């Protein structure tokens, strides 16, 4: 029995290792942003993007499952140009489910930020939603990209807060190429991200005013 259980455990661990190591890598145009001014790799789990003018608004980003976090640098760089501090997290095994409370450390580390927004893509959005539902006193808003708000669904007016990007798809919020099972986009990745930034900017401005 012990031998059998040991074999099963080894197979499970090996299978998990294979699964999490088969992830979507950031494309070169995303990685190039690491060399830009005001983009800093603080440590192995955090990259910050700072706007030219001082701002007390911060966006913490939870990446999608099995997507390299740096794939979202182009989107966040665009948000930074709109005046927002952005904090890009790297999740254990590239899966936010293993550290859904990661925002806590960022909020504690940057007390100069007075208005926090948690943003997530796909599974990252679901985990961001779970975090916000239990920490509503710490954040001003939740932003979901291609994701479901399962934790605070009943408290949000989806007809008012949802934005549809016609011609977009699931993967083009980041720069990591085609995602298996995804629909083909009929607009460019740049256009999808432009519309995303515009929608996020409108949402935050309404909350601040």
Describe the 3D structure:
This protein has 209 residues and is an alpha/beta fold. The chain is 36% helix and 15% strand. Strands 1-2-4-3-5-6 form a 6-stranded mixed beta sheet, with helices on both faces. The radius of gyration is 18 Å and the shape is globular. The protein starts with a helix and ends with a helix. The relative contact order is 0.14. The model has no long low-confidence stretch (mean pLDDT 89).
Task: Provide a quick synopsis of the model.
Helices cover 36% and strands 15% of the residues. It has 209 residues and is an alpha/beta fold.
Task: Give structural attributes.
single chain; 209 residues; alpha/beta; 6-stranded mixed beta sheet; 6 strands; 15% strand; globular
Q: Percent range for helical residues?
A: 25-40%
What is the succession of H and E elements? HHEEEHEHEHEHH
Hey, roughly how much beta strand do the residues contain? 15-25%
Secondary structure: number of strands? 6
Strand order of the largest sheet: 1-2-4-3-5-6
Mean of residue pLDDT values: 89
As residue ranges, the low-confidence spans are none
- Radius of gyration, taken over Cα atoms and rounded to an integer in Å: 18 Å
What's the SSE blueprint?
Elements: H1 2-21, H2 28-31, E1 39-43, E2 46-49, E3 57-62, H3 73-81, E4 85-89, H4 103-109, E5 115-121, H5 123-134, E6 141-145, H6 158-161, H7 189-208
Parallel strand pairs: 3-4, 3-5, 5-6
Antiparallel strand pairs: 1-2, 2-4
